[in-house]
Design brief:
Layout (H helix, E strand, L loop, with lengths): L2 H7 L24 H9 L6 H38 L5 H48 L4 H6 L2 H20 L1 H22 L1 H8 L1 H39 L1 H6 L3 H53 L5 H42 L21 E8 L7 E8 L4 E5 L6 H8 L7 E6 L2 E2 L5 H5 L2 E4 L8 E2 H6 L7 H10 L3 H6 L7 E2 L8 H15 L3 E5 L7 H15 L3 E5 L11 E6 L2 E6 L1 H7 L2 H14 L1
Parallel strand pairs: 3-10, 3-11, 6-9, 9-10
Antiparallel strand pairs: 1-2, 1-4, 4-5, 7-8, 11-12
Helix pairs in contact: 2-12, 3-4, 3-7, 3-12, 4-6, 6-9, 6-12, 7-8, 7-12, 9-11, 9-12, 11-12, 16-18, 18-19
């Protein structure tokens, strides 16, 4: 189907080039359930419970050693101080034992942290692997209408940027959160053992932190979500401007495109600045509170040492604990901003995963095995929205018959093809192939019987051989070469430096338009379909290439039931039957001469084309 038809016959909600996505920013209209998102995201780690447990054990072990090391360091200070004060000298054996213990603790902390990081990286990568796999599978299950309503750039941003943000924060921020929480509990425990009063002073920073988090978190989440939504909008803008580069240049649209880009870019800057500012205010504010607490501890602790209530080594250790006590809190606050970004990305991914899927399960509609028609449209009703485009469409196509479909733009030609392929489900009536309702078939079964050659050639990056084989993955080398010869493509392919192993680039523009079309015809040949759908395949090539393509298409049509969407009537004079469509219904039918004699819509289209050709 052509791009022009696709744009005009599909729903009006389809995004227009350069137009702002109507869904932009809607993610923020109502608050999301963060805990439900966390719970769902955690579900992707269920298969790695053992790794998570090992990481948790390593975290606990490393934290315990990290918590205990200041106490042993303080003991060393006490041994030195008491030895000097008593005049009996320093007990170097005791000091050496303490220092050796501290050294082993530091080595253990390193190994535990290394193991923890390694395990969490594995968990995060495996979880996001499953997430990407589900997202890719979901794209194959959503109806075609889903792509009508969502921009490619936004979907690509979700699949790339949002998933990447999830994996980054899952393996980094989540690890930091876990270790910081355990470290906080450990420090608190050791401080209570040394001095409950000093611990109470130190712990005063906790409610301050919770209040600060409660104030900042909602706004930070809002702006973070808006930032990643804007990233999707920006990706769409860039993708469209690159794909339509020639059109932009032709119509002097550079200024409009730059204005649209600047708008999206400015939105991202504003939202990103607000999100980063709110997240960044947590740490300096916490640092100020920590410094005030540190001064209080120094004064009160010094008095307790002088009075003999606390050993000097313990107060030294307490200083380390108190300074370290604020660090996990600050890390928690800092990581929480990244976790919010992860949750915002996860929500966008889950919105795609929760999208309504096309109901592809075989149904139990009545079949008509006595119907002699190869394809039958029986009182079909259909509309993209609430208004029906087709009210009571009926058509019987005999086996091997060539049906040409003509009509003005928006008449319903592409809609007819979409319904036959079951890209959309009808709202009434039935479509049958060999008497079997297409809704009773699986999509694979239905589409394996139908081949398509479109006006807009689609070839993927890869070899010419693989592009032809795409029509039938089980095809042999002999079948591939035979299909290329039947499509008159073998001659130019073998003249290329690498022949069938020639790599086509992203747009396949390292070969000509006509050569691309011949490859798509060869792909249709190798699929060997029962029913063939042809869109006008020669409108963008020169006359000589058109003759080659027409010859290849005649070979392809031979013996097959076919539907030919015609834009130039000269290509369908020999059709068995011509359907003239208007507003979703057949208004005229017959062969070329019969329709000419009617003097109706077909004659009007023909005469207008003839006038253009001779004018």
């Amino acid at each position: 189907m052509s791009k022009e038809q696709d744009k005009e016959e599909k729903e009006p909600s389809k995004k227009v080039f350069g137009q702002k996505d109507p869904n932009f920013g809607k993610e923020n209209e109502k608050p999301k359930n963060a805990w439900a998102t966390i719970k769902r995201l955690a579900g992707y780690t269920k298969k790695n419970v053992l790794l998570i447990v090992l990481a948790f054990v390593a975290t606990i072990a490393g934290t315990v050693m990290q918590v205990y090391s200041p106490k042993r360091t303080g003991d060393a200070v006490t041994v030195i101080f008491e030895g000097i004060r008593s005049g009996q000298g320093i007990d170097f054996h005791a000091l050496l034992a303490i220092l050796l213990t501290v050294a082993l603790l530091f080595v253990g902390i390193f190994l535990a942290n290394f193991l923890q990081q390694r395990l969490m990286v594995l968990v995060a990568q495996k979880a996001t692997y499953r997430l990407r796999k589900e997202l890719k599978a979901k794209m194959n299950k959503v109806p075609v209408s889903y792509f009508d309503k969502h921009t490619n750039g936004n979907l690509m941003s979700i699949a790339a940027n949002d998933v990447d943000n999830i994996v980054t924060n899952l393996q980094e921020s989540l690890t930091t959160l876990i270790s910081s929480v355990i470290l906080l509990v450990g420090y608190l425990t050791m401080m209570l053992l040394i001095s409950p009063i000093l611990t109470l002073i130190t712990a005063a920073i906790i409610p301050f932190s919770l209040i600060l988090m409660g104030l900042i978190t909602p706004a930070a989440k809002k702006y973070t979500t808006a930032y990643y939504t804007g990233l999707g909008e920006l990706s769409t803008n860039i993708e469209e401007s690159y794909q339509g580069f020639a059109v932009v240049k032709t119509f002097n649209g550079e200024e409009a495109i730059l204005k649209q880009f600047d708008g999206s870019n400015e939105t991202m800057v504003v939202q990103g600045r607000k999100a980063r500012f709110l997240g960044g205010t947590m740490m300096p504010t916490m640092s100020l509170g920590s410094n005030i607490v540190y001064v209080l501890i120094a004064v009160i602790g010094a008095l307790k040492v002088i009075s003999g209530q606390i050993a000097i080594g313990d107060i030294t250790a307490f200083f380390q604990y108190s300074s370290g006590f604020s660090q996990p809190i600050m890390k928690i606050l800092q990581s929480w901003g990244n976790v919010l970004a992860m949750l915002a990305s996860a929500e966008r991914v889950f919105e795609v995963l929760d999208a309504e899927e096309m109901d592809d399960a075989p149904k139990d509609y009545p079949n008509d095995t006595d119907d002699p028609a190869k394809v039958s449209f029986d009182h079909v009703q259909f509309g993209y929205g609430d208004d029906l485009l087709m009210h009571d469409f009926c058509l019987d196509v005999a086996p091997g018959q060539m049906i040409a479909i003509v009509g003005h733009t928006g008449a319903g030609k592409t809609t007819l093809i979409n319904l036959l392929e079951r890209f959309y489900d009808i709202k009434g009536g039935s479509i049958r192939i060999d008497g079997v309702d297409t809704r009773n078939m699986t999509p694979d079964e239905l589409r394996s019987r139908i081949g398509m050659v479109l006006q807009d050639t689609w070839l993927f990056s890869g070899t010419i051989y693989d592009n032809i084989k795409y029509g039938n993955e089980s095809a042999t080398d002999e079948q591939i070469h035979a299909a290329a010869k039947a499509a008159y493509a073998d001659d130019f392919i073998t003249k290329l430096p690498d022949g069938y192993d020639t790599i086509l680039n992203e747009e396949a523009d390292n070969i000509s338009q006509g050569q691309r079309q011949l490859i798509t015809i060869a792909r249709a040949f190798v699929s060997d379909p029962e029913i063939l759908i042809l869109d006008e395949a020669t409108s963008n090539v020169d006359s000589r290439t058109e003759m080659v393509i027409q010859s290849a298409m005649k070979r392809l049509l031979n013996g097959r039931t076919s539907f030919v969407v015609a834009h130039r009537l000269s290509t369908i004079y020999d059709a068995d039957r011509i359907l003239v469509m208007d507003a979703g219904d057949i208004v005229e039918t017959g062969d070329h001469e019969e329709l000419q004699a009617m003097g109706g819509v077909y004659a009007d289209i023909y005469n207008s084309q003839f006038a253009l050709a001779t004018g």
